[in-house]
Specification:
- The termini are far apart.
- By secondary structure, the chain is mainly α.
- The chain has five helices and no strands.
């Protein structure tokens, strides 16, 4: 369980309410991303595995697992989130993310000869 975060003493009640709402939205997005990538499958927090979803500190979980993803997986996730933010359905967003993955793979294939030194003179 996350501990309650304190508000700065200079904030008015309205500002505290707005800050709490912003924090809740940020937490919800972090939890969504953790569940999107199914980090709960490899999470060391047993509550997450039991719940089959992020049940702990979603920000720490995301930081811990994001680096373990390949760049291709990260590109796919970014494209999916961008498509969802544009108002697409999940099915449409997945199609857009898959198309982005295909573009990423094609780009990597173009770079492969350069990386091996075949294009060097």
């Amino acid at each position: 369980m996350q501990r309650e975060r304190e508000f700065p003493s200079w904030q008015t009640p309205e500002q505290r309410k707005a800050t709490a709402k912003l924090r809740a939205e940020h937490d919800a997005m972090a939890r969504f991303k953790c569940n999107l990538f199914r980090f709960w499958r490899v999470c060391r927090d047993k509550r997450c595995r039991r719940a089959r979803g992020c049940a702990g500190d979603m920000h720490a979980c995301f930081r811990r697992h994001w680096d373990a993803l390949t760049e291709e997986e990260r590109q796919w996730g970014r494209a999916l989130l961008a498509a969802l933010a544009q108002g697409n359905t999940m099915r449409q967003a997945i199609a857009a993310a898959d198309a982005e993955r295909a573009r990423y793979r094609a780009f990597q294939e173009k770079l492969r000869p350069l990386a091996s030194g075949a294009g060097a003179r």
